[in-house]
Design brief:
Rossmann fold; 2 domains; eight-stranded mixed sheet; two-stranded antiparallel ribbon
Length: 425
């Protein structure tokens, strides 16, 4: 497995070098408009599960490109300020925890994945997080039919689902405390019922992972051993068999991802059972980038598994011939696939719906992902055609680099925490 990780890292470096060699001159300091599809993620979790804290900490972690990183996140000014205020309250050991989401409040967070090339910013894609009001899951009768119907439609059209599970409640369940059993019975089971209708990948995010300690595990237990014990308990308590079982001919990808917005030794549980900050604590978040990084690799991997063997063979043939399709050729292949019987599978799996908005671009992203890594296309291209396509090609190369970082992040999770895999392999 370490060899696999080494290969993935080498490929990621290789793609970075390829970008440097193939980049074309662009106006310095300004972004050039390009097709940028939006991927929809629905976050489910009751009040107090840590959805807003997770998003605020994730944005703080990724809003600046890290050394060696390929992308960073941007959002509008209002959301940047709001998320910054939440993170400020998290990081201040003297301040109280930020308040939970207001009752009945469903919020949308939009993050643009950006990349730099010679001082020019390029928007690669957008990820939209829909944070539904937690009481929809806790009190379905009071929520009203319209709100529930909207929730069901959003779930059916999502590219990925996040099921936020409160790590404090997980600890209570592991210790056999009544509050933990009540949480999973009254709050989590309704969430599982909503998720059962989805066909997209599902990521269960265990928040406050730093608190899941001292429940009877061996004193020297690793995080992987600890997660394995948690996974076995959750499989039973949450009745996950229906979600992890095969859906038709394809198994839905389901993950269990432990995250912490603050890391170990920052928070503790006091004598009253409340989570409080340690005055001397310093936040050291863990795994915050993983739920975002896993969206596209899991979506594309699941769709690839659903394709007819002849369609996969045709795309694989392009890879074996060491020829990367030009942007125009890729769009033509995408249009042909969408018009063929395989198009129905692509539309359903990639959640394209009936609209063409961004649909072709998402399909071309999927085709590029299937054919990665690429070698340079052989042959001479007319100068006029090259100039017309050079920006699109640059964005594709930056996107390839981002994909490699996504996949390396997911691979590192699987190597470090093998218990995170629930189904789909």
């Amino acid at each position: 497995m370490l060899v696999i990780l080494f290969i993935a890292l080498v490929v990621a470096i290789g793609v970075r070098v390829l970008v440097g060699r193939r980049r074309q001159a662009a106006p310095t300091g300004s972004a050039v408009a390009a097709a940028s599809p939006t991927f929809r993620v629905v976050a489910l979790g009751v009040s107090g599960s840590g959805k807003t804290v997770f998003l605020a900490s994730m944005f703080h972690r990724l809003h600046i490109r890290s050394p060696g990183g390929s992308y960073f996140l941007e959002t509008d000014a209002a959301q940047r300020v709001a998320l910054g205020q939440v993170f400020g309250k998290i990081a201040d050991a003297r301040a109280p925890w930020p308040p939970g989401t207001d009752v009945g409040q469903t919020r949308e967070f939009t993050f643009d994945c950006m990349a730099f090339d010679e001082g020019t910013k390029h928007k690669i894609m957008t990820i939209n997080y829909l944070d539904f009001a937690g009481e929809l899951l806790e009190s379905q009768q009071e929520a009203g039919g319209t709100a529930l119907a909207d929730l069901e439609e959003r779930i059916k059209g999502a590219h990925a689902l996040l099921g936020m599970i409160d790590g404090h409640r997980v600890l209570q369940l592991l210790r056999g405390e009544p509050a933990g059993h009540a949480y999973f019975h009254s709050s989590i089971q309704p969430m599982i019922g909503f998720m059962a209708s989805a066909t997209c990948p599902i990521h269960f995010v265990v928040t406050k992972w730093d608190l899941v300690r001292g429940f009877g595990e061996p004193p020297d237990a690793s995080d992987d051993q600890r997660l394995r014990l948690v996974r076995d308990m959750l499989m039973d308590a949450m009745q996950l068999d229906a979600l992890v079982s095969r859906q038709g001919v394809v198994r839905r990808i389901v993950r269990l991802i432990p995250v912490s917005a603050v890391g170990v030794d920052y928070a503790r549980i006091d004598d009253r059972g409340q989570v409080v900050k340690r005055p001397e604590g310093v936040p050291r978040p863990t795994n915050l980038e993983v739920p975002l990084a896993a969206v596209l690799p899991d979506l594309f991997r699941q769709v690839e598994a659903s394709l007819d063997a002849s369609v996969r063979a045709e795309i694989d043939a392009r890879v074996r011939s060491h020829m990367r399709l030009s942007p125009r050729d890729t769009v033509a292949l995408a249009a042909r696939l969408l018009g063929a019987p395989a198009g129905a599978i692509l539309r359903t799996g990639l959640q394209l719906g009936t609209t063409r908005a961004y649909g072709d671009e998402i399909v071309t992203m999927f085709l590029d992902w299937m054919g990665s890594p690429f070698a340079d296309k052989s042959g001479v291209v007319e100068r006029s055609r090259r100039e017309a396509e050079e920006h699109t090609e640059l964005v594709r190369e930056l996107r390839d680099q981002m994909f490699k970082e996504f996949e390396t992040t997911v691979l590192r999770l699987e190597l470090d925490l093998s218990a995170s895999r629930l189904s789909g392999w």
